[in-house]
Specification:
Blueprint (H helix, E strand, L loop, with lengths): L2 H11 L2 H12 L5 E2 H8 L3 H13 L3 E6 L2 E6 L1 H12 L11 H7 L11
Antiparallel strand pairs: 1-3, 2-3
């Protein structure tokens, strides 16, 4: 990932409404949510929400899809994965046990395919 793309993504998330929006969309993957429903759930005026969604989209963190009269927004999980890898790529200095706690914290919400509980 290019450093400028990472900075754009981190900048977009560095605001409470946009961070809440992204987290809400992550919880509603893969279906996504209409823009109006996002605004309603976060109690943000629709025109303000539109500006926030545009910023998130410009940073590559959300994607939109028109369905009839609605625009459905989804979190771009591949972009957040790339950002996370970018941030942690040089973690550990060759000592994976230092990064193990970070990976362990992700495991409960994201079990590996085929893993059983």
């Amino acid at each position: 990932m290019d450093i400028h793309i990472a900075i754009d993504a981190l900048s977009a998330l560095a605001q409470d409404t946009r961070l809440a929006t992204f987290r809400l969309l992550v919880r509603h993957e893969p279906e996504g949510l209409p823009a109006g429903e996002i605004a309603r759930q976060l109690e943000v005026p629709q025109n303000t929400m539109s500006a926030h969604l545009k910023l998130l989209a410009d940073a590559g963190l959300v994607q939109s899809d028109r369905q009839g009269r609605s625009i459905i927004y989804r979190a771009d999980l591949s972009q957040i994965q790339a950002l996370t890898v970018f941030l942690l790529k040089d973690c550990c200095g060759g000592r994976p046990e230092l990064c193990a706690p970070v990976i362990a914290d992700l495991a409960p919400c994201c079990p590996a395919p085929g893993a059983t509980s």
